[in-house]
């Protein structure tokens, strides 16, 4: 009887040791898989990062060349409307006659009565519904105070020109009714 109990104890211990060994083998195998997948991820070519960043630049909807074309168009178009426009150059904010400063005060700007939809995004890709790539402002010289501020933007990847002529209350813009301005912005943006 003692012999049978000893044999059973030894057999049970052997099975437990064998099970632990298999578990360690499985853990080592899993560890090796994660290490090899991590090594595989780390061994990707270095230029794949630069390729993805260059493709990110290719995704820009707006660039300096288009911006210069728009500036040239606005220089010719403004006088046909008997107006001169100040251009936001990307560095020096534009302060309009009502005291609003762009692009700083985009947080106050509404689009057709809704706040938080518009912001400065020089490539046309940003976190806004309306990603503004250019700002032009004309302040009227005769009382009462008046201004015409155009925001050239991308909405869902499509070019749109918004205009704000508000003189009191919250600044509020809406799509322009000037088809010449809209069509020329589309033409430049789609090149």
UniProtKB/TrEMBL annotation:
Signal peptide positions (record): 1-18
Please list where the region (Disordered) is annotated: 24-59
The residues covered by the DUF4767 domain are 60-189
Instruction: Look up keyword Signal and say if it applies.
Output: yes
Q: Where is the composition biased (Low complexity)?
A: 27-54
Question: Has the keyword Signal been applied to this entry?
Answer: yes
Q: Which UniProt keywords apply?
A: Signal
For this protein, the record's Pfam families field holds: DUF4767
Annotated protein name in UniProt: DUF4767 domain-containing protein
Query: Which source organism does the UniProt entry give?
Result: Limosilactobacillus walteri
Provide the organism lineage as a comma list.
Answer: Bacteria, Bacillati, Bacillota, Bacilli, Lactobacillales
């Amino acid at each position: 009887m003692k012999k049978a109990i000893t044999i059973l104890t030894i057999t049970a211990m052997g099975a437990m040791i064998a099970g632990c060994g298999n578990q360690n083998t499985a853990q080592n195998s899993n560890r090796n898989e994660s290490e090899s997948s991590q090594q595989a991820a780390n061994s990707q070519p270095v230029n794949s990062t630069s390729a993805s960043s260059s493709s990110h630049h290719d995704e820009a909807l707006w660039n300096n060349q288009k911006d210069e074309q728009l500036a040239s168009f606005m220089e010719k178009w403004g006088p046909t409307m008997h107006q001169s426009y100040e251009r936001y150059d990307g560095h020096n904010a534009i302060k309009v006659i009502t005291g609003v400063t762009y692009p700083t005060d985009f947080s106050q700007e509404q689009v057709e009565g809704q706040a938080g939809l518009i912001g400065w995004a020089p490539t046309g890709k940003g976190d806004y519904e309306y990603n503004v790539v250019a700002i032009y402002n004309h302040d009227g010289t005769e009382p009462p105070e008046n201004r015409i501020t155009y925001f050239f933007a991308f909405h869902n990847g499509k070019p749109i020109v918004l205009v704000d002529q508000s003189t009191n209350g919250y600044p509020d813009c809406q799509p322009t009714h000037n088809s010449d301005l809209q069509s020329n912005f589309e033409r430049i943006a789609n090149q």
